[in-house]
Design goal:
Elements lengths: L2 H4 L30 H30 L11 H10 L1 H38 L1 H16 L2 H12 L3 H24 L4 H9 L4 H38 L7 H10 L3 H30 L11
Helix pairs in contact: 3-4, 3-11, 4-5, 4-7, 4-9, 4-10, 4-11, 5-7, 6-7, 7-9, 9-10, 9-11, 10-11
């Protein structure tokens, strides 16, 4: 057998060490088989359905096992809630009208928060001095309990529709500011240096670098604030009773008259509204940002 046949890869035939490292030969990647649409749908739908069945089972257990018959009004079983809160058209129609009024307040408040919060975040991202001047007051606004300023809001804006919108704005504004500012400041420093090298203006840098880079974080703030705006609309309606009857006024009425079935139905409908708005912004985020980034976490 010749010397060449005994010579390992990366070694010289005269015995001297090679001046290059042993090459690493990669095997061709084998693509993973794709999942069918049915499998993908089951993976996304089946877990929440199973957990929902578990919640209903626990609900029945509390209603019939934990609570005595004379105290069952504290938590009526699910079928009673369905019959009186949803199957009864008169009650359900009242609930739909209240939900429509609260949804209107929530959407207007969210729109104002998006415009105001995004504008403030862009302004703060342009100069550290502006950020240092404004950010503490944004934190203070977030930390103030709404209950503490309800009388002031009523004195300034009345006790009707405007005050409800103001409450929705106060509750939903801060996450938009924080997430937008974080996204605007998270662009890669090397890319910033490249824009500086080409003498790009502030507007060009904002339009072509920081704002596109911040879109995922911006939409994350929108999704958080979407749910908070629904909460703000209901809280505002609870305290400001003039004008159209919203979910907040219905919750107060049902609680005063111990209508626990309608009360739970109103809570469920309010939750569904918040979830619907949250999912709507998630869908909009996918349409706007596309496949710019991968969601964390892998398959187990």
């Amino acid at each position: 057998m010749t010397v060449e046949e005994h010579t390992p890869i990366g070694a010289r035939s005269d015995g001297a060490s090679a001046d290059f490292e042993t090459p690493f030969i990669m095997a061709p990647a084998v693509p993973k088989p794709g999942k069918s649409r049915l499998r993908l749908a089951s993976d996304s739908i089946l877990p929440p359905v199973v957990f929902g069945v578990f919640i209903i089972a626990v609900w029945y257990g509390i209603s019939y096992v934990v609570l005595d018959a004379d105290r069952r009004f504290l938590l009526r079983p699910p079928h009673d809630v369905w019959q009186k809160g949803f199957a009864d058209w008169e009650n359900f129609h009242e609930l739909l009208n209240g939900l429509q009024s609260s949804a209107k307040v929530a959407f207007i408040g969210l729109g104002i928060s998006i415009v105001l919060g995004t504008s403030l975040a862009i302004l703060m991202s342009q100069a550290k001095s502006i950020e240092r001047a404004l950010f503490p007051y944004m934190v203070t606004l977030q930390a103030i309990p709404v209950l503490a300023i309800v009388p002031l809001i009523g004195f300034w804006f009345g006790f009707g529709f405007k005050s409800r919108v103001v409450v929705a704005v106060i509750i939903s504004l801060f996450p938009i500011i924080v997430n937008t500012l974080f996204g605007l400041q998270s662009a890669d420093r090397g890319v910033h240096d490249l824009f500086t090298l080409h003498h790009a203006s502030r507007l060009t840098r904002l339009r072509k670098l920081t704002l596109p880079n911040a879109l995922p974080a911006i939409f994350a703030g929108f999704r958080i604030s979407a749910g908070l705006s629904v909460i703000g609309a209901i809280v505002g309606d609870f305290f400001f009773g003039k004008g159209d009857v919203g979910v907040g006024q219905l919750l107060r009425r049902y609680a005063n008259f111990l209508k626990s079935e309608q009360l739970l139905a109103a809570v469920i409908m309010s939750s569904l509204l918040g979830v619907a708005v949250f999912l709507a912004f998630g869908w909009l985020q996918e349409k706007v940002t596309g496949k710019w980034y991968e969601h964390g976490g892998g398959e187990v």
